[in-house]
Design goal:
13 helices; Aspartate Aminotransferase, domain 1; globular; 15 strands; 17% strand; four-stranded antiparallel β-sheet; 361 residues; Aspartate Aminotransferase, domain 2; alpha/beta; seven-stranded mixed β-sheet
Length: 361
């Protein structure tokens, strides 16, 4: 099977082998040594000098943890969205405000449309305390320039923390949170990190740590970043981790850093462009104004998306479909992690053949 969904993505054999290591106690010296080996590599991939905290759970859990830990009762917050996941983080801010008070602002664009920095600037002022944004919007295959967003937030809302979903950006496209003014980045294991689902991550910059240390938590303990930050600083974990995934993470980080992270970004970008060129040639229309290197989303030429995807699945190629209002209309495919040129070419050939048969050609 060729798996081209934008998560989970293929898990390479060295990572699979690493996860078969004997399970060890997470409070014992073997796991403590594993943490010490893995954490520097995580920092390199996140491109941050700050701590990278890990969760047994999904990217959604990690993002909600960042929001509930960094927002305070009565805060004015703002969400930036051009697809389903940006809207989801806005809904999380809504729930926080319903329980703890505060005001909400939204800079939500039509799905697939690039974020307008002028619209964002007009929504910000010195009272805003938290801004959420998605770097690579998996639902629409588009991306937002975090460097630009960070500059806008720093200028127009200097007290606000910027929390970025980099779930399909990390390890696949340029990311420099320390330099760009991104205070917290959220990611997950089953994307460009080439692992099964089960680990979520939050990196923290200095201002985010100051916010955590300077205010009382209203987050449930299970998602409170303070608890995890304390454990990180003590060289351990807050609660029971998926030990096998940590062994796999060690192997995946070795592979990523051996290739060189910037070379990896370039490889993903070139693969994505070649894929999009082929899809357009097959009659697809790209869904995003500013296509993401990590994920391509495109509208089917004849509207028979689910039928075509099922025919491809029967031939061993698995694509993702559209979400919500795009369900049945859109094909989504990954360029992240272990996805390579040979896999992509084979998948596109199968797609072309299925489309030809469906049209009677």
């Amino acid at each position: 099977m060729i798996l081209l969904t934008p998560g989970p993505t293929p898990v390479p054999e060295p990572v699979v082998r690493a996860m078969t290591a004997p399970i060890v106690p997470h409070r014992g010296p073997e796991f403590t040594a594993l943490l010490a080996r893995v954490r520097p590599g995580l920092g390199e991939v996140f491109r941050t000098r700050g701590p990278v905290l890990a969760f047994a759970g999904s990217g959604t859990l990690a993002m909600e943890s960042a929001i509930w830990s960094l927002a305070q009762p009565g805060d004015l917050t703002c969400s930036v969205a051009c697809g389903r996941f940006g809207e989801r983080w806005g809904e999380t801010l809504d729930r926080f405000a319903e329980i703890h008070g505060g005001e909400r602002r939204r800079v939500h664009s039509r799905w697939g449309r690039a974020t307008d920095p002028d619209r964002l600037a007009s929504a910000l002022d010195g009272r805003v305390r938290l801004v959420t944004v998605v770097q690579s919007e998996t639902s629409v295959g588009g991306w937002t320039d975090l460097r630009e967003v960070g500059a806008v937030v720093r200028e127009h809302a200097p007290q606000a923390l910027l929390v970025a979903d980099v779930v399909t950006g990390l390890g696949a496209m340029e990311l420099e949170p320390d330099a760009w003014g991104v205070d917290a980045c959220v990611a997950a294991s089953q994307k460009a990190l080439m692992l099964p689902p089960g680990l979520g991550f939050v990196s923290l910059g200095e201002r985010a740590i100051e916010r955590l240390r300077g205010a009382e938590s209203v987050a449930p303990r299970s998602i409170d970043l303070r608890w995890r930050l304390d454990a990180f600083e003590a060289g351990t974990v807050a609660n029971t981790p998926p030990v096998a995934l940590w062994y796999g993470l060690e192997a995946s980080l070795e592979m990523i850093l051996a290739e060189d992270l910037e070379a990896r970004w370039d490889r993903v970008r070139r693969l994505a462009q070649a894929c999009r060129d082929t899809l357009v040639g097959l009659g697809f229309r790209l869904a995003a104004e500013q296509p993401s290197p990590s994920v391509t989303a495109a509208f089917f030429p004849d509207g028979r998306g689910d039928e075509v995807r099922e025919a491809c699945r029967e031939r061993g190629v698995v694509f993702a479909g559209g979400q919500d209002q795009w369900k049945g209309r859109v094909l989504r495919m990954s360029h992240m992690g272990a996805v390579d040129e040979a896999m992509t070419e084979t998948a596109l050939r199968v797609l072309s053949e299925v489309l030809s048969r469906a049209s009677g050609a």
